[in-house]
Amino acid sequence: QAKRFGGDRIEPFRPAYKGAGSGRLEMESDLRRAFDRNELSLAFQPIVRLHDGEIAGFEALLRWEHPKRGTISPSEFIPIAESSGLIVPLGQFALEEASRRLSDWLKLTPDGDLTMSVNISSRQLIRQDLVQDVKNALDRYQFPARCLKLEITESIVMDNPERSAKLLARLRDMGVGLSLDDFGTGYSSLSYLLRFPFDTLKIDQSFLRDDGHPQRPIILQSIVTMAHDLGLSVVAEGVESEEDTVRLRQLQCEYAQSYMFAPPLTPEAARRRLQDRQMGLKRAG
Ligand code: C2E
Ligand code: MG
Ligand code: MG
Ligand code: MG
After folding, report:
1. Burial code of 143-166, b = ≥16 C-beta within 10 A, e = fewer?
2. Mutation pick for ligand 1 pocket among 73, 76, 119, 183 (CB with most ligand atoms within 8 Å)
């Protein structure tokens, strides 16, 4: 299946900076310059509805094309961006660029049935102006608030629970969607689901790796059932097998996001996929 996206496919990463120490400092100053030199961009990975295989939305994922080192993974540079404070302008760039694409792509989907998910880091959430940044984006690009979803990881919420809860409640009141990302990893606490106003739960990829544990399907089932009982939609991240896809469909898990369905795409390829979707829907209707 991945073959269909051949030329558009964004390749997996190799570590670009070796070790800690000076590598880290070098990466930080490179990242600072990258911002001014337009080396940063977004890739868009489809989030697919499991019952019909159609695109429900996209997750915006930062990409850094280093002139000498090639493409650098966000797992490498996001932590550096967070510790250096660079995450703030980076995050603003991601929100702005994703909003711009969303408003463009909504013109291809007259029913307004499209979401754009943007990852939010702790520094960004704690900053006063995330709410203002989101307001500005809504104002400027004129899309319905519900089309924007912010992805938050559990550890972020842990950092400053009181303040995070207030900010998330304000965003939720504006109508913006809130997804709990990487659920089941780190300092996972089920109490987050009570304390914070999430509407979507993203099951971490680690639950979709077939590691031979016979109990894995039981855990998967429990997470989906619990989420549904709490009124949350579920996205399964990194689904790898047909078996799991069938299983998730049976559990009425709403969405999947994985290489098996579609890798992160260039904006042009993502737009084309959406156009194809609309053609398909017209034919079906
Ligand atoms: P994430 O938010 O959990 O995003 C999903 C990651 O899983 C992406 O990695 C995606 O390419 C990868 N993925 C998707 N399908 C599959 C699959 O089938 N198998 C496997 N093995 N992986 C799959 P990516 O793009 O490298 O991003 C890594 C992380 O970097 C993201 O994890 C997110 O935490 C962070 N990140 C990316 N963009 C941003 C951003 O704009 N802001 C912030 N704060 N963090 C970002
Ligand atoms: Mg995410
Ligand atoms: Mg995730
Ligand atoms: Mg992650």
Report:
1. bebebbbbbbbbebbeeeeeebee
2. 119
